[in-house]
């Protein structure tokens, strides 16, 4: 909590709280849009605006300029007049982290003036303490003017931002100076280009259209001295996307080298000139849509003539869908006959999976990734996609940062789990289709080998201000109607050479409808069983371990091994495709859910009863929560908890989760699964690493469960477990 931000919020509510034009802000001490909007409305009230709004628009600008044509100036020391606008300025400064040297007052003296000058220096404009309209707009925004290094801000980018504010604010307004290259700065760079082309500030919109394209200048080493500002702009943009140029107006060897590297990386002609292709690739995601392409993608099942026409037009690769429909009835799925047409034409295929993915709700349940991965693998095998091919999974909307973290990454994590499991016997690789930011983040997380970039969507926030992913294989940049028999919609894709696509397919047999139906049922069973396994291991914190090793049915797999001088805990998993009978001495829980997906009272009581005897309170709660989460995830079945002595120094604790009805919606289908998670605990004498328990001193029952809970869920606590053993009356057993 920031006390001065809190004071600002209290001042706002105390001053304007009874005005019907004003909505009270939360008094939290934290700056956010709620507080900024409160300051904007407060200013509008002071300007006499009756219909207030939480934006600094044209009406607010006009009223501000009418009342303060020369800006808001600092008061003379002997000027005792008061004005709420001064308090609004002070509050905004405090919200941005600038100290005025005093509390919220109705005065504009030296402390506030010094803060304004500091802010202006950070903006790059310098000057007096006068608050002009541009400065006021920047104050009443969430823009930052200090380096946000922890968010990836760079000094080189910040220096460019400050230069833009100093030299081009008539065109761009004041932009953030946070060192981050994003939408606002990308727009500003286009506005600078338009200013160089001769557009007025009013006409420099920041949109890169045909007019802007028609006025581009080709800059070479020979004419660069006459176009210094153009060179500066090209260097600035290169610096923003990670090419380190000396930021000035001169053409030098370092710049030419970086320019060539950029052209090569983006697969545009390496001309060593700033030509049309280069300008558009620098400042827009799609680049020059008129440039030729080696790759394309479409939702049309290609006939022989269409495939030949694509080849004759210069295309070598075509992206095609493994499943799905266009609309409700027209299939877009790659067929065996189509494969013959594509092969005969001399084309290669890169496979795409998209049965949804064009809206955020599709990714709300990460388990969708499990389903999609298995369907994609099955469909790819059915049509002969060979070993090691890459399948691109689509994120076909402009996902925001929070959606990326909460939805997209968990979705691809589940896809990765399947692709790293024994189910992916073809060793297919995961690719990602989406805006630049999505592709980069998914790939950086280790969930995708290659990227298929949706650069055609130039307005996507995930494209604006982001460099093309380092692992890009295909780059979609233009949609048009391709002339053939019949004509069809086609997307042009740039090709990097990283993914060679599929030229030769495995030999497969065409399937009848009955055979396809049987395979689909088999897939449904496999998907349900796999999801059941994940629903068991995830609440136990073992999902990442399973990701790395994969799993096979009817085989015990070691997931983890914790070794200390005093003990060893080996965690293993066995997945059975049959139902087993839990031991008579186990704790048994029947899973029951309410209609809203929560545990029934009976089920909750049973879990509590099973875990209440665990005498280590913290460990008991951990076990209880884990079992509850498993029950909620798997939704139906039974859970058994067992302990048994394996040897004088070994105990095994097991969690057995089983279901006899994996597909309840298919009443005539009985499929089983049992997942057994085993924890084998071995105790040692820390000095000689020998057993420390006699036959009659073996840990049993609740003791081992309590120890286990601590070891699994609080591994950093292992060194003090021996101390806790004393609370169980077992300290004397330890040498």
Backbone CA Rg: 32 Å
* Structural classification: alpha/beta
Assigned CATH architecture of the largest domain: Alpha-Beta Barrel
Number of helices: 23
Measured between the Cα atoms of the first and last residue, the distance is 51 Å
| Average pLDDT figure | 87
Low-pLDDT runs: 614-618, 686-706, 714-735
Share of residues in strands = 5-15%
| Number of structural units classed as domains | 4
CATH homologous superfamily placement of the largest domain: Glycosidases
Please list the strands of the largest sheet in the order they lie side by side.
1-2-5-6-7-8-9-10
CATH class of the largest domain: Alpha Beta
Quick rundown:
The protein has 735 residues and is of the alpha/beta class. It has 23 helices and 16 strands. The protein has helices at residues 3-16, 33-46, 58-67, 84-95, 110-123, 133-139, 155-172, 183-196, 210-214, 228-240, 253-265, 276-283, 304-312, 336-345, 367-382, 401-419, 436-444, 513-537, 543-549, 601-611, 617-634, 702-713, 721-727; strands at 295-297, 317-321, 325-326, 330-331, 348-353, 390-394, 429-434, 450-454, 472-482, 488-495, 556-563, 567-576, 587-591, 637-647, 650-659, 673-683.
């Amino acid at each position: 909590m920031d006390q001065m931000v809190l004071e600002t919020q209290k001042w706002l509510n105390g001053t304007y709280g009874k005005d019907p034009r004003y909505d009270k802000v939360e008094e939290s001490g934290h700056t956010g849009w709620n507080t900024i909007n409160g300051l904007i409305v407060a200013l509008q009230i002071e300007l006499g605006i009756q219909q207030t709004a939480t934006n600094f628009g044209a009406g607010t600008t006009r009223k501000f300029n009418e009342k303060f044509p020369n800006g808001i100036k600092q008061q003379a020391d002997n000027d005792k007049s008061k004005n709420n606008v001064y308090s609004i300025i002070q509050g905004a400064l405090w919200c941005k982290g600038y100290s005025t040297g005093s509390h919220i007052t109705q005065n504009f003296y030296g402390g506030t003036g010094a803060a304004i000058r500091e802010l202006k220096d950070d903006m790059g404009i310098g000057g007096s303490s006068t608050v002009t309209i541009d400065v006021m707009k920047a104050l009443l925004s969430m823009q930052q003017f200090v380096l946000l290094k922890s968010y990836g801000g760079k000094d080189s980018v910040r220096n460019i931002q400050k230069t833009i504010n100093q030299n081009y604010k008539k065109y761009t307004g004041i932009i953030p100076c946070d060192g981050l290259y994003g939408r606002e700065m990308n727009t500003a760079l286009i506005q600078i280009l338009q200013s160089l082309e001769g557009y007025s500030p009013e006409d420099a919109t920041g949109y890169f259209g045909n007019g802007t394209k028609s006025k581009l200048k080709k800059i070479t080493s020979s004419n660069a001295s006459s176009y210094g500002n153009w060179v500066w702009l090209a260097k600035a943009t290169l610096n923003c996307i990670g090419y380190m140029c000396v930021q000035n107006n001169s053409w030098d060897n370092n710049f030419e080298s970086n320019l060539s590297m950029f052209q090569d990386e983006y697969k545009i002609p390496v001309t060593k000139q700033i030509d049309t292709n280069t300008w558009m690739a620098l400042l827009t995601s799609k680049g020059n849509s008129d440039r030729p392409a080696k790759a394309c993608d479409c939702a049309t099942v290609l006939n022989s003539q269409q495939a030949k026409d694509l080849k004759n037009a210069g295309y070598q690769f075509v992206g095609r869908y493994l499943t799905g429909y266009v609309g409700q009835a027209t299939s877009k799925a790659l067929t065996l006959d189509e494969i013959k047409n594509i092969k005969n034409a001399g084309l290669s295929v890169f496979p795409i999976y998209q049965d949804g993915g064009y809206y955020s709700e599709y990714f709300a349940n990460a388990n969708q990734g499990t389903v999609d991965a298995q369907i994609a693998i099955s469909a790819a095998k059915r049509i002969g996609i060979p070993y090691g091919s890459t399948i691109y999974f689509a994120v076909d909307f402009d996902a925001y940062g929070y959606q990326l973290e909460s939805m997209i990454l968990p979705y691809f994590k589940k896809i990765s789990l399947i692709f790293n499991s024994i189910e992916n016997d073809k060793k297919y690789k995961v690719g990602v289709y989406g805006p630049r930011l999505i592709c980069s983040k998914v790939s950086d997380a280790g969930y995708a080998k290659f990227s298929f970039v949706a650069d055609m969507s130039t307005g996507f926030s995930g494209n604006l201000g982001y460099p093309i992913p380092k692992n890009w294989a295909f780059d979609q940049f233009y949609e048009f109607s391709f002339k053939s028999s019949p004509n069809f919609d086609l997307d042009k894709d740039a090709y990097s050479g990283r993914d060679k696509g599929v030229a030769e397919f495995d030999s497969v047999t065409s399937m009848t409808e009955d055979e396809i139906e049987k395979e689909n049922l088999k897939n449904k069973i496999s998907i349900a069983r796999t999801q059941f396994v994940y629903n068991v291991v995830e609440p136990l914190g073992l999902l990442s371990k399973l990701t790395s090793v994969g799993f096979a049915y009817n085989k015990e797999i070691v997931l983890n091994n914790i070794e200390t001088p005093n003990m060893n805990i080996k965690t293993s998993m066995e997945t059975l495709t049959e139902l087993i009978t839990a031991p008579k001495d186990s704790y048994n829980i029947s899973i029951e859910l309410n209609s809203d997906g929560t545990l029934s009272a009976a089920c909750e009581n049973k879990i509590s009863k099973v875990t209440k005897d665990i005498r280590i309170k913290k460990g008991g709660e951990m076990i209880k929560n884990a079992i509850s989460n498993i029950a909620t995830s798997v939704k139906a079945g039974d859970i058994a908890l067992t302990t048994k002595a394996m040897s004088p120094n070994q105990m095994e604790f097991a969690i057995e989760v089983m279901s006899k009805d994996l597909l309840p919606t298919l009443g005539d289908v009985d499929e089983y699964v049992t997942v057994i998670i085993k924890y084998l605990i071995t105790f040692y004498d820390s000095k000689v690493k020998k057993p420390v328990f006699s036959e009659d001193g073996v840990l049993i029952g609740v003791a081992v469960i309590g120890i286990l809970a601590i070891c699994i869920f609080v591994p950093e606590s292992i060194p003090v477990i021996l101390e806790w053993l004393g609370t169980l009356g077992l300290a004397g057993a330890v040498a």
